[in-house]
Amino acid sequence: MTLKFSLSDTPPESTDSPCVIVGMYSDGSMSAAATRIDKASAGALKRLFESGDITAKLGSSSIFFGLAGIKSGRVLVVGLGEKAKFDAAAFNRAALEAGRALKALPIASATSCLVELEVADRDAAWKLRTAALAADMHAYRYTATFKPKDEPKTARLESLVFTSTENKRALSEAAAIASGVRFARELGNLPPNICNPAYIADQSMAFAASHDGVECEILEREDMEKLGMGSLLAVSRGSANPPKLVVLKWNGGSKGAKPTVLVGKGITFDTGGISLKPGAGMEEMKFDMCGAAGMLGTFVSAVELALPINLVCIAAAVENMPDGNAYRPSDVLTSMSGQTIEVLNTDAEGRLILCDALTYAQKFDPEVIIDAATLTGACVVALGKHASGLMTQDEELAAQLLDAGNHTLDRAWRLPLWDEYQSALDSAFADVANLGGKYGGAITAGCFLSRFTTGFRWAHLDIAGTAWNEGRKGLATGRPVPLLTQYLINRCA
Ligand code: BES
Ligand code: MN
Ligand code: ZN
Predict the structure, then answer these.
(1) Could you tell me if 27 and 99 lie in one domain?
(2) Considering its fold, how many domains does the chain have in total?
(3) What does the alpha-carbon distance between residue 216 and residue 248 come to, in Å, rounded to a whole number?
(4) Whether residues 448 and 394 fall in one domain
(5) Other CB atoms closer than 10 Å to residue 368's CB: what's the count?
(6) Catalytic positions, written as ranges
(7) Which atom, in ligand 1's list, is nearest to the CA of 349?
(8) Per-block average pLDDT, block size 10, for the chain (493 residues)?
């Protein structure tokens, strides 16, 4: 369950909340709410700043208990850094820090006064949504595969109140995006022995069953054989877990309006196949289904918002394993499009499942097709872990997606898909090879996909760097759900 969000206009010093959150800039200047708390507590915040207990640095926070004159038992002061540099990214950072601090407290609800902070070019609705999503990002806990614990003795954060004027739309957007992000994160975090292709199919069916107006169809191996998906099926051949192609539909738009089709890479575990990956770090490849999870999460958000569009979500759920029956380097596959593909590396499997899913997407007569995939390590080398790679030959679509990413701070950065890169995929034995040359691996992977979307408005998001956080304890991020949900919201405006 996501946090519950609500609004209140009670002054911060007299609000009856377990915790009130206010901001302070690093020169000691205070927001309106912090000033009110300071006045009501006879200058307590000012003294705490002067004593150095509050540094007010961006990314820091301090908690104070039982301030005289303040009704709330706790005051959380979030550092905002330099006032002149306080922009959208800084606001998000402060809101995330508030969420991190809240998670550590034994309280069920809190009141945030952060929405009043001035942020250039961002309105109250944006601040409300951003603060809500930041809190929910931290409030999420992964518990699915731990021994069930006794009921926690202390309360856990369940709801967040914002001191802000009427803005129901922003709150419902925050709640919907939070649901989609959580849906994507949970699928991403689950281990590959649980979250296999059948599990993704079951979760999609369960979502459809519990939401009016959502249809779900699962294409089985035999269905895909009939469709001629020789490329996707080759990748699945080494696995004991049969592949599933999940198709979800939401018809919120007018009858006959062309749908937006979302396609996600759902490799539930990527061993590399016969081109086996090295052992170190292979466990991270449970996240190789985060493209599918992100598209399903975006679908969840869109349905929760009942967006007036027609939407199709296709999740290609496949496991890439080595086996006596596995596909091999040098195999030539025939894709659903009819194009043949020379396999040069079985670890470049994402593009092989996506190409058939992208061909299948075309049967819906799409307005636009967008895919998301943890496609290449090269994308992480190029852009690091902050930006998703965006590739498209459609200028308008590029602008819309970049804009949605900038708005939500779930940002993407464009890489070119110029024709000059295409020859890297030349093969002496098939129409195309599944591997480019030494350089520009994210781009040549995008070029491969582009050959299966000719004549369509299409964009590709490489989320290899952004879909999960690094390290032993790194969790799925839920990206690109915020970016794509915003894109869909903007399309409806
Ligand atoms: N799932 C990986 C890409 C990946 C690697 C994502 C590391 C995140 C972190 C993908 O299937 C893959 O193995 N790509 C290869 C492509 C290569 C064989 C052309 C890669 O990036 O090394
Ligand atoms: Mn791979
Ligand atoms: Zn992969």
Answers:
(1) yes
(2) 2
(3) 4
(4) yes
(5) 20
(6) 277, 351
(7) 11
(8) 96 97 98 97 98 98 98 98 98 98 97 97 96 98 94 92 91 98 99 99 98 98 99 99 99 97 99 98 98 99 98 99 98 99 99 99 98 99 98 99 98 98 98 98 99 98 98 98 99 95
